[in-house]
Amino acid sequence: MSKQISTPTENSFVPHGARMAGEERREQILRVAVSLFSNNGFRGTTTKEIAQAAGVSEAMVFRHFATKEELYAAILDHKACKGSGSFEPEQMAAEAIKRKDDRGVFESLALGALNHHEQDPEFQRLLLYSALEKHKLAQMFFDGFVRKVYDFLGGYIRERQREGALLEMDPAIVVRGFIGMVMHHSLNNNLWDPKHRLLNISNEAAAKHFTDILLNGIATPSAKRSGKRARQDSSRNT
């Protein structure tokens, strides 16, 4: 007996008898696939079930995504790279990087990541499933996104170390510590403690405090004094 798929379909929002354009149908199948994968895992989801939940034939699924690999690549493109919910660290911190504003760089990245995962916890669950099941999507995400974040943020840290603003240490350790704080907080809020019983603070406050912890540990004494004066001047101007 086949199991029942209770995931709402996109057809619920389409008038009876209406036909979707090719691109709309593709996006619909993609959204349904993401929802099923994030709730049931990759091993627990078949293309037949995706088709059933989307209200189309399995042949239609393969018409838009010839292979599963193509579907996985489309998921990353859809969820991590494009659309209004995308998270693009380099763009997010671009202005702060130009100013060499260390606080602005880390705080903007922390806030962007926390907001992104709060608005789209589905993608976070999807990535956890892919890692636990040793699914190729995990490696695709790591190569296409995580490595780039390490390279981009690590490069900025190395530059600031050469300028004497940050203490000398492996930039990868700094990036790992920073991401660790942000992601642990995000996972607690989205998966383990959605009612925020252990820590109930806004994303803005969390981003500020995590940045405080980081910079208090890696900023040189002169940079700390400079940053403190800048914050005081900003406070007076406000």
In CATH, the topology of the largest domain is named: Tetracycline Repressor, domain 2
Main sheet specs: none
Number of helices: 12
Oligomeric status of the shown chains?
A: single chain
The string of secondary-structure elements, in order, is: HHHHHHHHHHHH
Structural class: mainly alpha
Number of domains: 2
Quick one: CATH superfamily of the largest domain? Tetracycline Repressor, domain 2
Number of DSSP strands? 0
Give the terminus-to-terminus CA distance: 66 Å
Query: Which CATH class of the largest domain?
Result: Mainly Alpha
Which features would summarize this protein structure in a list?
0% strand, single chain, Tetracycline Repressor, domain 2, mainly alpha, Arc Repressor Mutant, subunit A, 238 residues, disordered N terminus, 2 domains
What does this structure look like?
- It is a single chain.
- It contains 12 helices and no strands.
- With 238 residues, the protein is an all-alpha fold.
- It has helices at 22-40, 47-54, 58-64, 68-81, 89-92, 94-99, 102-119, 121-132, 136-162, 171-192, 203-218, 221-237.
- Residues 1-18 have low confidence and may be disordered.
- The chain folds into 2 domains: 10-66, Homeodomain-like (Arc Repressor Mutant, subunit A, Orthogonal Bundle), CATH 1.10.10; 85-237, Tetracycline Repressor, domain 2 (Orthogonal Bundle), CATH 1.10.357.
- α2 (47-54) packs across α3 and α9 packs across α10 (171-192).
- It is elongated and about 65 Å long.
